[in-house]
Amino acid sequence: MTNMHNKFPSWQTILGFLSTQRQIRLIKSSTLFHEKWYLEHYPDVAATGMNPASHFLKFGGSEGRDPGPGFNCAWYLKNYRSAILPGLNPLIHYLEQGRELGYLPMPNSPNASQDELSESDNFNPAWYIKTYQDVAQGSIDPYQHYLMWGKAEGRKGTPPKVQIKTGAIAFDPAKENVLVICHNASLTGAPVLGLNIAQLLGGKYNVVCVYLWGGSLESEFREFSTHYMGPLPQDDMTLTINHAVDLLVEKFLFKFAIVNSVACHQFLPGLSRHHVPRVSLVHEFASYSKPANAVSEVVRLSSTTIFSTSLTLEDALALDPGLKDYPIHLLPQGLCVIPADENASPEQRLLEEAGVLRLLRPSDIPANTFLVIGVGFVHFRKGVDLFIDCASRLVKSDPQLSFRFAWIGQGYEPDRDQDYSVFLQDQVKRAGLLDQFVFMPETRSMETVYKTADLLMLSSRLDPLPNVAIDAMFHRLPLVCFNQTTGIANLLTEAGLDDACVAPYLDTPVMAEKILAFARSKAYSLKVGAELQTIARKQFDMPRYVAEIERLAISPGDHINT
What is the CATH T-level fold of the domain 346-539, as seen in this structure? Predict the structure, then answer.
């Protein structure tokens, strides 16, 4: 009797046939296989009459024949042989595995520059497809697309060079993780606030800090975090930030993220995509934020948004009334503490304090000189020109009084900045203030500044809730400001101190009169200073502020909470 099993192929044979047919279809569907090119370059294959794709699968790949101009079999086998099973066609390996692993189908052009060689040799097809969705939706191989069109269009073949670095605090796997994002690491308001938030959260969480641009606080961000990232490459910020977010959420499971300032709004789409709860802290006015819809985007993409003052909240709602339907809360920030420079020795700190004192109160000025300070980055928004205008009025107001004025902060560069600094320099000269006015750089010795000064003039045109004003109030230092320019003005008006401390909008004559009242009476200065300190202690509690941020991050709420 004939064995019936011999009449039919084995399952192994059938599976092998199906696998071969699937691989042939895969080869044919790939833009890396060019049937006409294959036959023209290998006429012996054409002479056999064999299907080109079938020939390449069975013989061509192992013989070092290329499926087309975009794939080099010999080079691929040489570079990735250890990852390819014996007998597996190199193009099949690339299409099924290599592309996802970041392998290249061919070396770069021998005529390319060294920079191009470096970028193309590191070309990451998986990242390229994920980043450029139009390529993912097409049928062309990503490396071919990059060489033919992508590079000329300015697309990147490799991910931005961002790195998660280890901070000074040991990572505790038993703790949950939180992310704190700041726009820079400078010794200015929002970064100092972000640093204080990170420090207070560090007792309960593993805190990961990110900052876009560098600054003098970089070592402190490292000190108060388990991991940190920054500064980031600036050439394509959207691409860089999206990649940074992907790296962060791949490494950490975040309980929530704190996005500190509108300047960090580009982080929100990526965090939202990865379903990370997002608390955004808005310190800016919507009317001057860039791009024009930045604050609206922040509110709409955040799990909850915290405004520091009613002034900024009202400004945002006036521009976009629809924001009232999103979770929004009003919460004044707490008192920030500028950490001491750990890299400076006690001797260096003493030298800095002495240098600050020499600038503020030179030895040749009268002991009773009334010292007025302004603080902040030198910018039109900070109203440095208004500060100088008030100074000019004060020195002319009473010949019996001696005044000195100091603006403390970065950005005064008249040799380089022809848009603002050069005009401020000229204004000081023309106002006859050269002997009574000094610009000095930012300093960590602000404690010395507050103890030495007699009054803080908050000359800003727009400044929601500046740390410097809160600091001055805690130090019992009298301050004056303009109405409708800052949340500090609203706070002082509510406390009944508007007559003493708040001038009409940008009214420098009235501002000068209010400062003159303080200069004429030490008792008046002490009385108002004590009242300001009482207000500050009641309003600005940093531990309470951070605890409320944490609560809202976990339970964002539904409506505006004032």
Answer: Rossmann fold (3.40.50)
